[in-house]
Records
---
Amino acid sequence: MSFAGVGVSPGRACAPAFVLDPGGTGVWAEDHLEGPPERHRALDGALEVCRGEIDELIAMTTSRLGADAAAIFKAHRLIVDDPEWLEAVRGRIDAGALFPVAVSEAAEQMAGLLRSLSDEYLRERADDVLDVAHRVLVNLGFAQNRLMPDPGHPSVVLVARDLAPSDAMELPADVVAGIATEMGTRTSHAAILARQLGIPAVCGVARLLEAVTPGGLVAIDGETGECDVDPNPATVNHYRIDVRAVEIRMDPVATLDGIEIKVMANAANYTEVGRAASLGADGVGLFRTEFLFHTGCGLEDEEGQVRAYLAALEASGGRPVTFRTMDVGGDKPLSGLPMDPETNPFLGVRGIRLSLRRSEIFRTQLRALGRVALEFDSVRVMFPMISGLEEVRQVRQVLEDVPGADRFELGAMIEVPSAALLADEILDEVDFVSVGTNDLAQYVLAADRTNPMLGELYHELHPGLLRILATVVAAGRRHDKPVGLCGEIAGDVRAVPLLVGMGFRSLSVAPPLVPHVKARIVALSARRAGELATVAARARTVVEVEALLSVGEEGLAQ
Amino acid sequence: MNVASSSIEVRNRLGLHARPSEQFVKAAQGYESDISLRVGDRIGNGKSIIGLLGLGVVHGTILEITASGPDACEAVDGLAALLARLAAEEVD
């Protein structure tokens, strides 16, 4: 049976349906809370937990999908503390309402206000208010999270009436081949996230749930919006051949004039590594180990880490995996690792600074990595927030009595300006460096990239930053050691010619971008890109650099 | 008590969506003054994301910002400048 929906995220999928239960609101006769004072306290407690959860969601979304995608959850963070909503909740509590009734009625009131608007995007924001209210209720046991397929479950098409943005971020991306929902539009946050996660999706399929049986085949085309329930065998093949706009290149690629450029992927768990491998990534350029700690209830023990690292290496299929040791700090807090408050966490105890101070946690992580290095040849380990040789040497000292560590390919992240300027000296003592442009840019420009007032100052192609990057690339050339780049800018396809021209030979990007970056490289002449970089090195302003990015594909081909 | 007020045309192509509205509310919360917003006959609290979104600000909407409190002038100037910048950023 064929349905017409709206294609909101390109790609095709055909798999058994996994029907997400509607997760309706319950009816509450009592809440076991005694009177308004206790309900106010319960609200305060639940809000506090929600703040922490959303902060983690922001951190996870930022590093997986970038700051733009995380804006959704930053809005959620504001809703948690929204004065209008809280006033409505507290007013109902004072009037004697049960806790869950007060929360859901107040949220419904706010959502109703938004639904009355004529702008489609603003109407969709009603779901954000309800999503946050649901989170508050879940935290006090008044509602339950919807049951998602487990990681490792065979591939499914997720079918639901609607998908909340936080549901979308919790999707096991390796399991969910596609998404089909009755509600939602192109501007639903879930649709936005599906596009960024690279999962084909169709929204607005009327009466879909009536037609679907759990486990029955569902096929979707995220471009045309077609949705087929129990498709006949002839159409199944049509949906299974995913004609993406970009060819997936499984082998390493080279420029037109034969310069090989490795395109690696950023990942935080083995499913993302597997996905990257299937999209032709030449390895993992940045494996963010701190997310292993975020998903557990506390700090992962050595055995748990060994399992996670082995799984990542297996998923990578022999291609190298670059493990970055735990990068947390005051700005990226970790539940289970309380830290002293700092006035300036970005300049505080984070990254390697924290690891060297909490050496029991650091040693556990290195021992786990050492054990997997005894089984795999392709283990690269790099350290975040290195500022100079002192830290490199301290790390080396810790590594001395870690079995297996002599098999690591050892690297330093270049994200502190002093390390960039000392790249020569650092490369004397490590095997490779990888430039983290997100942090390097904010330190070089003295501009917090999350501060909206400074938006125009923070720019990953600022001429000042380009000159520092050139220093690092030159050091790599002198030592004949690899200099990689991982950061948002590597995934900006427009910037690829400039980065290749500057001399970067390895770029690490979000998995769905791998085929796009590879496609750009094979259409590029490294010689022409080098000329572009020479011009860029003389740029005086951001505008001058930006102008160079618009040089078309033809202009850089020969 | 100081009161300051200013009307600004919102020039963002899509009105105030997730990122700009989040930035606006965060900035508004940074001022001590109460911030009230008016579009036609709808009035919203400028420190509330729901209040702001509920005004239905789209491209071309005239938004009246009124601040009352010790830093009312700074608040109105700062928020007006922020709106202008949010629109300008979109152009790139």
Note: Residues 253-556 of chain A form a domain with the TIM Barrel fold (CATH 3.20.20.60).
---
Amino acid sequence: MRRSFLMIACASLVIAGTVFSATSQTKMPQLIFRDRTLPNGLRVLSAVDKSSPSVAINVWYHVGSKDDPDQRSGFAHLFEHIMFKSTKNMKAEMMDRLTEDVGGNNNAFTEDDVTVYYETIPSNYLETLLWAEAERLASLTIDEGNFVSERAVVQEEYRQSILAPPYGKFFYALQQKSFNAHPYKRPTIGSIEDLQAATVENVKKFHSTYYRPDNATLIVVGDFDSQQLDKWVDKYFASIPKPNLPLPRVSVKEDARTGEKRFTEYGSNNVKLPAVGITYLVPSQKSEDSAALTMADVILSQGRSSRLYQSLVYQQVVAQSVNSNADLKEDAGLFYLTAILAQGKKPAEAESALLAEVQKLQDTPVSAAELEKAKNQVIASQLRQRETNLGKSQALGSAAVLLGDPKRVNTELDKLQAVTAADVQRVAKKYFTPENRYVFTYLPESARSTSATSQQDRTNDPVKGGSR
Amino acid sequence: MKTFMNKIQAVSLVSLALISFGVCVVAQEPQATPPPPAAPRSVQLPRPVEKTLPNGLRIVVVQRSEMPLVTARLLIKSGGEVDSNDLAGGADMTAALLTRGTTTRSATQIAEQIEALGGFINSSAGWDSSNVSLDVLSARIGPAMEIFADVVRNPAFKEEEITRLRTQYLNNLAVSLGQPGALARFAAARIIYRDAPYGHPLSGTPESLPRIKRDDIARIHGTFYRPDNAILVIGGDMTAENGFALAQKYFGDWPKPANELPKVQIVTPVSEAKNRRILVIDMPDAGQAAVLAVRTAINRNSPDYFRGIVSNAILSGYSGRLNWEIRVKRGLSYGAGSSLDTRRWAGSFSASAQTKNESGAEVAALTLDEVAKLASGDVAETELKPRKASLIGGFARALETNNGLVSQVGSLALYGLGLDEINKFVANVEMVKPADIKRFAAANLNTDSTSLVVVGDAKKFLPALQKQFAQVEVIPVAELDLNSASLRRAISKN
């Protein structure tokens, strides 16, 4: 749903920007783009595709939930909602008038590292929307009434994604408790209390701190004329000043884990099937190991022929569903293994089945056929992402902002194609160790008093004050 | 760096054109009004072409070759509506089992072989159709089609796969039944369709699934999976000529049975004031209340179809009236909307939102109010025009992917509509006038005969709801029975 936040529960759907280029049989069409930076620091990436009369616009701000102010978890995402309210020359919801009302649409999402706003519009509205994006970058205005009402919307979003679904609190806890020091421990959606504490003043400060041209990347993909685009970009963005203040950056490092930790979490009594999760701390997506970790993820859980599905869901029937996710970020990332149990199965059975698959990756190199299959799956999913202008624009944004170089939109797949069976085995041995493992068991509330496990494997809660 | 000039007048495009790269751009106050749009470009949609094989299989190919991808979908023109109440979920299990083993390939081999080609294959039943969908790199379509045809024509329906799939379905249900939104949708179908087809959960109930045996599955497959009850749609990087040749190669010798295709005639209830229900499902642990207003509505071939979808667009979408009143104005939900689910025999209309339990009654009232206003008030042209644009834009965006294209073309083919309807969509939407909406809503969306379901922590909204409605039924979630129209277990626990 619109103005969504992305968290790990759905992040597996969005392996954006981790891949591309060619294999033996299928060529990845190169994405030809232009790259220019205005004197005020705004980076502008553009790619022409006239196959349909529409344009996708993205504005990526290099600020995410890791930059939430102290005691304000969820703030970057709440702020994202406020960006659809008024500006100096736009009334609240005017973005919708300029997009939805003319046959386009708009949305935005907040992740740990970035906040992304985007529109898909009929191409004759490109100039209009460039004006509007410049408006909310340069002159956001905040009205108390709108702020309070939108904050309530975000609190409903919290309830809808964390409280109402049976496994909402499970995925929330996985992220929250998997980091000890890094602000990634604050789930992007935040908490009802921290959201309630947010003020209009916080909004103003956040906008002036992070919403500046030298912290933004504008991406335009679709039906337009490049020279005309440059003129419009100059007209609407070039006069936005670059502030003299430095851009604050998170410098906290997550220390290596030093031993297994175990957590028991409780959902409501609507949790009919327990769940287990395992997280390993892994390095930044810029690391040399990220391609091999991504391939390990595909081998473990993409499709019904994947190892976790075959073992836990199909053969042992110990799980209702399984997943893995190489959730790589700008700083430290997490490699997740999760299983929702089948009826009558015990968390310990699912945990040992997951660990057996980890062990297999460590002990035996994947076969050439299995590796080839995973590579084909990766190419096909990247191609599918690029069926639309919006998909292409997001691939460009991800390469430019998260990987630091838009050219990687065309080179990342080569890295994935170069991954060998030995690489997968090596990263499995390096990161999937008992010392680097946090294990989560998720049970219904009714099990809290009766379950022996809830007593035995509870360790100290590692989450410190900031995240609540 | 930039030089700032306080100049209110926006420079014209002509003067901007004189500024070249690298030269300081003249800065100015941002202009106060959005620049107007340029002239629109017209949309070119791919044209579907079709032929029918001698065995009755209808083939539709729609080519679009920007990406080296192909989607192929086989639609069987029978879905969950053929299930009896007792065996609810049979059609969906049958469809799902196709990819769980053929006479020559195990379930694991099917998955491995398709995924090695960079593809995936899925099968399931919907209402009115059962589908097998293949998505693959176009360079690999040949070997992928061989597997695709194998699963359609030669499923093994092994006992162990049936048992395994049943267990999976029961586990999936256990998860769904913990979600207020899913429960509300299950209950809503029973309220409007009662014990008729379309009333049961598509994937069965905890009681019906164990009753489904191999014979039932083989019977469903034998009865409905035949070339003269099927449509094959291929979309993407594929010429019509190649598409037809592939279809001929893999489905040309699919025999048409000698017996007649059974004629199915389905009669479903119509929502009337006398059978309206206001139902609360009490789920004390629900993290939110799910509010859903529901009634029967037009079928897909109704002459009112476009009046219906435009009326729905007034209510639904981000800036539709429901979301505007419930989310934007009041902050009561992350999203509110409605849908007109048109089907072969009888469609349904529903409007829904999730909200904190305390607001359940307020959101219910707002939802019904907005639906009622469609029949009592007028829609101004200034409101209608953007809602039509939004509807048309959404339609066009859905066609951007192969999957969306195949879905849309497949749906037209399934309901026997002309495939050129895809190019008439815009004109058909534009034809709808404000008076049409009022008439449509009065005839089809009367709230006096619209039922309401609220699933959540009843103590937080029931008193307020009882002030709005004289008769509110309350069913504790533990006593809910999805197998019958009453929705209540005949012999309640304790």
Note: Chain A touches chain B through 99 residues (CB under 8 Å).
